[in-house]
Amino acid sequence: MPFTLPSFVIALLLLQVPLFGQSETTGRLSGGVFDADNEPLTGVVVSLNPGNHQTLTDLSGTFSFPELTPGSYVVQAYLLGHKPLRKAVAVAAGAQDLRLVLEADAMLLEEISVVGQSVTTALETEGFAMRALELEEEENSSVQVTDLLDRTSGIRIQQNGGMGSRINYNINGLSGNAIRIFIDGIPMESYGPSFSLQSLPASMIERIEVYKGVVPVELAGDALGGAINVVLKKTLERNALRASYSYGSFNTHQSAVSGNFYDPKSGFTVNGSAFYNASDNDYEVWGNQVYTTDPTTGDITYVRARRFHDRYRSGGFNARAGITNRSWADELLVGGVYSSLDQQIQHGATMESVYGSRKAYQQTQLVNLSYKDNSFLSDKLSLSAFSSYSNLDRRIVDTAAYIYDWDGQRKEKLDANDNVIGYYEYISGAEAGTPTLQTSNERVYVGRATAGYRISERHDLTANVLHTYFTRDSEDPLRHVDIRDLEDTRFSSRSIVGLGYAYRSTDNRLKLSAFYKYFNQGVRIVEYRKESATAEVELNRVNRSVRADGFGVTAAYEVFPNVLVQTSAERSFRLPVPQELFGNLAENLEPNYGLQPERSKNLNLGVTLGTYRFGNHETRFQVNAFIRDTEDKIKRNVREDDTDETTEFINDDSYISKGFDADLFYSFAGKLDITSSVSVFNSLFNTPFDEDGLAYDWYRDRERNAPFFTANGNVRYRKQDLIQKGSRASVSANVGYVHWFYRDWESLGGRGKDIIPTQLVCDVGLLYTFPGERITLALDGRNIFDRQVFDNYALQKPGRAFYAKINFTIL
Question: 106 pLDDT band (50/70/90 cuts)?
């Protein structure tokens, strides 16, 4: 592993902005505003007199008054729905902190229909095309996080099958690893593949931030098409313990527990969470890829069959301990993560290659260290740093050559009297190619540092450094003895530096930002090959590096009250990830060491109307239009032969995607919520000629196997004091629509071209919270009309399913 300290040295150098602007004869008053539950309050008007100083609290509830003349002042804090606070303070030379707590005003809450700006609203008005999803109600249901994202405008989640299957994220026409996933701003790749959005229960999540296209510099990474940042619940300053358990169709179990201990005197904090997921995934499948074959005549019989070799098990925990809420650090925590995965593999790249014995195993161990301080060396300076080292072990077992059909049985060899005399086998010796017991060890180091400097109340600077280093060693006892003990290692390093500037006007109506990012990637492979027993051992050595830079701007302007116009534009790059470069046997992926970075120019323009309130009625409308001009798009290759066992990632020339997404929200008296969304992301192949000058037949065709029109509608009704006084209940229904789309290029072929059919899926849910809010029961029905649902190359997803979940709040 290379010496990685320079990443942090660079970050600290970036932090060394002038800290001497404040004279020793002046004072600075800063602090935070919180509610009675110790949650930070955003958009609080904080004023200081004499002097008529005034500011608003930011997303973390903090405020600051720099360069004050020492003396006596009166600070006032005001937020609609809360009791105003007035407090006398004495300001001396130097810096001092102040903590303010606002109490909710029951009378105001009943009478006032205009409320203060929430964290999610504040995020959605910064100029980025983004949505912030709060999970306050959904956390108690058995709906997975990926399902909630799939209901969000502009996002399409494509999944290969049931629980644990591969997922592809599509945001406004860009997909795959162009969409980066973060947990609290940390790249999810550092947590290992078995710790994913599928495994995270909603009860552990506070909100999900979805960025469409342009991504803020604070999320250090090379996201090209957007980013999903999962913000976990923070209970660092109070004791808490919660647990949940869900059971449902296909023998599916999901359980989770999370807790926190905090000692206010010492600041000692311990928190952690654990999960376990399991499913047999034995749902029914049917269609033109599900059949049995007569071994004698070759005749095909199409059948309805249950998946019989798709069991999935995963589990893990995340624990941290350290010090929080001290004058020298808001957080200093050391942690560890463990996760494991045990998965049967049902088929190859398509459902026509049926497996009956292939399996994959994974295990991840990770240690991390995190530090945060919003007043690092100066009240104007904030610093957060994170470092982790993970060790991932993979194992593939594929040694049986028996041929299976969708009836779940091995194909039998019969004699003339129909007696079984043996079984048909693959010539290759295994189900997905040559026999393998390959084990691979992946080690990933991640170092990240983010600094923020407040020049004044209207000007902010941000610096961010991210460095990752990846190595993979592989060994297979079934490989030829001549190369088994030779070095076979892959290396990949990636460094991204970001600089950002933000401006907000005095009245907070205008917000501007600009950023710059520098990308650097190195790839090195030392690989030995032996094509046959008689062939010579061949050395394949690759050593290359990539450097690029990108930049972008955002703007948001409140033209009139409740009329907000936002725009963002960028030129950015996306570096290929190790799985794309080096392949992955568990997912039937071959390596492609020659992959080039994907690059794109993105433009967004959006308008938000509302929130408008008329008595008991509340409504809001959002629309965002976009253009994505992408070159060297990294995509999974589509093989011409459907029976191919494997595929690989390729650079697929250029695409241009244009479209829009729109959201409409309506609420009545806080009891009835109706939301609807429409998304059009029309991605067109935009390269007229290949490298030999020959015209592409599919020039300007829609991107194959990619949906281009989706819609969602959701209704939720709440009822207080149902059955029991003090209880809360809600019933909800969601309808998701996906218009049919071509599996291949629409210009190829004549009649009878393969399509992924139109899909209309309805889900329902029921929640009941008992008095005291310690126990919540949930019932969920998925795809209740049992529609046949596809995403990727006609890989069928589960049909009708029902789940029940119980949530306990112990502390």
Answer: low
